[in-house]
Amino acid sequence: MKSFSGNIRIREAQPSDAPNIGRLLILSAQTFLPALFGPQIDHAVEEMARGLGTLFSYEHAWIAEEGGRVHGMLLGYTGALKAAQDPRTGLALLGALRVGLIRRLPALLRTQSAIGVMGKDEFYISNVAVYPAHRGKGIGSLLIERARAEARKAHATRLILDVETDNPDAQRLYERLGFRVVHESPALVLAGHAFGFRRMALPMEALPG
User: Fold this and answer.
1) Among residues 57, 74, 102, 126, which is most buried (max CB within 10 A)?
2) Three-class SS string for the chain?
C-alpha cells in the first residue's frame, strides 16, 4: 500500500495555478489530447485555465501541494455545469485553435458521443494527474477523496470518469477506491492512434459518511 508523504494538502485552484493546470492536463492524456485537438492544445488549455466560464477553468480544479510546490491536480464538474459551459468552452477552443479545430470537428463529435455523455446529476472527474517525481505518495487518492467531497456537496448521484484502456495502473487505483467499469467505448482512431476508454462509476451511496 502506498503511503502519504509529508504535509500534502488539497486546495482550490487559483488563476496563478494556470501554468501547472495546463501542464498537468496535458500530462493526464499526453497522447490523446494532442491527437484530438492538435499540437497547440497545451497553450489553449493554459489560457482557458486562467479564465472563467469554460470547463478547463481553474474554478473546476483542485491542487495537491506540499511546501508551496504543486504536485498534482484534479479537474471535475457536474453534468449540469458541463451542459451550461460546453458552448463557451467550444467557442474558446475555436478562438484558440481556429482552422485546426474546424478540421477536427468530426473527430470531436465522435469523441463527445463516446466519452462526453453524462447525466446532469453526476459528478465527472475529467482529468487527474500527478507529476512523475511525486507519484507513489498517495496524491491521486487524496485528489479523488476531494472529488468525492465535492460530489457530495453538489448532491451528485455518482462519481464517474473515463480511463484509457492502455492505462491499467490508473484503472487499478480507481478500483481500489471503489470504482467499477460500467461501459467500454468503441476504439477512437485519431491522428493514426487508436484510443479506447472505460467508463468507471462510484455511486454516492457507496461513499462513507
Assistant:
1) 74
2) CCCCCCCCEEEECCHHHHHHHHHHHHHHCCCHHHHHHCCCHHHHHHHHHHCCCCCCCHHHEEEEEECCEEEEEEEEEEHHHHHHHHHHHHHHHHHHHCHHHHHCHHHHHHHHHHHCCCCCCEEEEEEEEECHHHCCCCHHHHHHHHHHHHHHHCCCCEEEEEEECCCHHHHHHHHHCCCEEEEECCCEEECCEEECEEEEEEEHHHCCC
